[in-house]
Amino acid sequence: MEDHCRNFSLPDLNRFLQLDPYIKPYEGDIQRRYRLFEECLARLEKAEGGFDQFTRSYQSYGVHRRSDSTLLLKEWAPGAQALYLTGDFNAWEKLSHPFTPKAFGKWELSLPPKPDGSPAIQHLSKLKLVVLTKDGAYLFRISPWATYVTKTLDSVTYDWIHWDPPQPYKHRRPPQPRCPRIYEAHVGIASPREEIASYKNFILDVLPRVKDLGYNCLQLMAVMEHAYYASFGYQVTNFFAASSRFGTPDDLKALVDRAHSLGIIVLLDMVHSHASSNTEDGLNYFDGTDSCFFHAGPRGEHSHWGSRLFNYSSWEVSRFLLSNLRWWMDEYGFDGFRFDGVTSMLYHHHGVGVSFSGSYCEYFGMQVDEDAVVHLMLSNYILHKLYPDCITIAEDVSGMPGLCRPIQEGGLGFDYRLAMAVPDKWIQKKSLGWGRSGNPLVLWCHLYSLAFWLMDKEMYTNMSALITMTPVIDRGMQLHKLIRLLTHSLGGEGYLNFMGNEFGHPEWLDFPRKGNEESYRYARRQYNLVDTEHLRYRQLYAFDRDMNQTEDKYGWLSSGPAVVSTLDQADKVIVFERAKLLFIFNFHPSASFSHYRVAVQHAGKYPFISLRLRLFSRPGQCCAVPAFLSFCLCAAESINHLFSAV
């Protein structure tokens, strides 16, 4: 076994310090967390035969069939007095199949094959663990390592279904793109029908659109099984199970495989920041105690989310979570992860009631959860060591320094940070009268839907090209294009679009719940709108496609940061250069400019392309005169195809 620690020494912070000299006073904190990471990695190598074996524990925990059809079962339940297996296979005899206790709270059971040579437990049969607690109570539980769970319409909890198909599914991976253009999607809402859509529907109806639009990366939400549909997938109950609402595990594998065949990599929304508080079908009180997978007492509870918080310092919790990452990579062929709730993980206060100002003292000290920091470092190190093309994205709103620096430089090892503040900032600009007098200069790199904010109820009646375009629709459509292009070109090293935003999806997203009488009306994506030829949604869709294709040609996302030469508050003009392209945006609501002088890095002739944006004031006010969005290319070739006549 290769010693993966041998190339590690104290991190060289010179590169980090050159990029960010303000980190110097906290060099000791960075050295400390790196040392803790090294020590943890060394323990894994020594005690478990290497992190490769340790993180493949999904091959031994749970239920596994050997070549002779013997079934081996293994669980970790340190608080249990006894453990039993029951289900369809033994007519639900509660105590007929006891596990054998092992060291460190582990339990094992071996089931020989039937006389005909078939496994004792058949594919798709129901199972339950029976936990005898130390106070004498019997609890029915689902294995934390269960790979398939389902729920009937008349039940509020999930059933553990033994998934053991005769022919395992195979898949392949495409190479990592030079920069991610991400299409974020939720399988269940990926249909205009008022229902829960399926993996198969996604393959047939959504993947072709993702390919046509020029996105090279698909990010799937709500795949890890969650009992509460309206949680958007963020209250996970079964970490190794693909959500059965949308189909079978093989259906999900087919989806990933089809995306790969189109040259699209697939990321999974990974929720390791917390877990559902459900007991019967979740991890909570699995062995009858509140401290099996989580911190005991208040530290193990998230006050705002009503969920449980993992004990990242626990050896077996590390086994569970790190093996979970590898399970989704190996079994389903995912290409990486977006880690949800990283801010909550990084700090003991979980970001609750904290407004991060950017002061570095907020990112170091006693408020930082070093166990969680080390866990994230281990996650990134293992993923990138074993899967060199793996992409990891952190959802962090705090701005933790070094989050995306390499571990050997003292960072946490993520490839990208998801800038969650961007859509909020755009909405803030709109709410404050942006487009008339607001300051449009604070930007980052990812975008959710804004069309309904811009056009509101007129989207129901005035999106037809067969009628005269109204001022609200005209202004809203042009601003929608402008916002996307500015975010795409100036933001960062990647771009994320939530499904439907590419064509200005109307209405808000709202999952079935008691407050809306369990309606699916707003839990869907109306792709039929973009398929209707006379509706203007097609124009927004075409702009999105051309924008992505142009980025693919010139590569501004994979180039260095933009050089901003003009931020004129009076003229409301933004000028910047990136990837040998010159971008000029005029946000002024009433003024157009001719012979406008801008600075450039390289002298020469710049072919000039202009898109007229008619920005109108609110009803009852005077109509603004046209303003312009201009986009120039520092090369001989033209990119007129990006802009169609408005």
TrEMBL record:
Q: Which InterPro entries match?
A: A-amylase/branching_C (IPR006048), Branching_enzy (IPR037439), GH (IPR017853), GH13_cat_dom (IPR006047), Glyco_hydro_13_N (IPR004193), Glyco_hydro_b (IPR013780), Ig-like_fold (IPR013783), Ig_E-set (IPR014756)
Q: What class of enzyme is it?
A: transferase
Matching entries from CDD domains are given as: AmyAc_bac_euk_BE, E_set_GBE_euk_N
This protein's GO cellular component annotations are: cytoplasm
What residues form the catalytic site here?
Answer: 340 (nucleophile), 395 (proton donor)
GO biological process terms, alphabetically, are: glycogen biosynthetic process; nervous system development
Protein family per UniProt: Belongs to the glycosyl hydrolase 13 family. GlgB subfamily.
Under which name does UniProt file this protein?
Answer: 1,4-alpha-glucan branching enzyme
Q: Which organism is it from?
A: Astyanax mexicanus
